Request: fold
Amino acid sequence: MKQYLLIGSGLIGRLLAWRLTLKGHRVSILSSDDQVGMGSAGYIAAAMISPATEAVQTEAKVKEIGNISAAIWPQWLADLPEPIFYQSNGTLVVAHAGDQAEMERFTKRAQHVLSDNDYTQLSKAELKEKELQLSQQFDNALFFDDEACLDNRHLYSQLTTILSSSPLCDWQQCEEIDSLSDGVLEALSQQYFSCSSGAFDEVIDCRGNGAKKDLEGLRSIRGEVIRVHAPEVNFKHAVRLIHPRYPMYLAPRPNNEYFLGATVIESDDMSPVSVRSGLELMSALYTINSGFAEARVLEMASHCRPAMIDNMPVVKRTNWGLQVNGLYRHGYLFSPAIISDVLALLEGNEQAIKFGEFMHV
Ligand SMILES: Cc1cc2nc3c(=O)[nH]c(=O)nc-3n(C[C@H](O)[C@H](O)[C@H](O)COP(=O)(O)OP(=O)(O)OC[C@H]3O[C@@H](n4cnc5c(N)ncnc54)[C@H](O)[C@@H]3O)c2cc1C
Reply:
């Protein structure tokens, strides 16, 4: 049994803590966040697990890492006490008649980045069969079979319950930790856990955006989402709307709730959703299906995605511990693969890091 100190309790922090306790290790968590997780990007996220469509919009390697995670998620979710909404019916990509040039560009890029069996082109009749309500507004679609989304709020709440009641976990809320060093860790260990930092076998920094002072090149990408309840809309698939100004995705949740996101703005501004973004998100929503007109807006929220210059994750060893960061817009898409890598690394396998860029100081 080893003793780990995790700093940050967002997506990476709580998933890593959970997997470490499942292996019988002790974890101490120190985070400026509350245990609900409202101060983390992972709480705001749409939680799409879409390896192929993200690869088309970003880069090919995303599919490789995403596919590994997509295979791990159902196994991990089976370890939870309650079933989590995990919809793996695939994604439908659509564009309005006036935006077919954008759709063509997306299709060409899919041909370039993916293999033929990653997606199918659907005619209006085929779309009608797959998602009747979507065929009312759109004449064709691309269908990506192997994609999913999950109910991240339920995942968070279950992990909170598991970790806060586990005898292997000591979870403390603290002020924001600006920068880490041996001295700071020693003081924090004494203050919050009444022990010396030497008591920990490893310190793992999972502060996301909060780690900028300790991770060169880390930047923030603002994202805004809205959550609606739409009793008149019954989508069985995730939807991506190709649009020249505001490309959107719609991630279904149980009971006719939907997350619509997300803006991608190069900024560390975490203030509430702007009027402009709110308008763009809501007009995009209404154009997907008129049933959204009477939807009720349950939430408008914003946060920032922690990203490195290449938008790929990073695992870095410093002289005081390990940093896991830069999950960008792929926290859910990548975390099982990255965390499995980190767990192997913690078990002494330095060759383990296949997916995050692994750097020594
Ligand atoms: C709008 C939006 C939509 C998204 N949609 C998706 C999606 O559909 N699919 C997908 O795969 N990914 C998505 N993401 C990305 C995903 O949420 C992130 O990649 C992921 O949350 C990063 O995990 P993390 O643990 O590194 O950071 P976070 O989840 O942000 O967690 C960091 C934790 O550290 C704490 N902390 C921060 N600073 C400090 C400090 N100084 N001291 C102490 N504690 C600190 C925070 O309070 C938080 O608890 C989305 C993100 C956003 C913002």
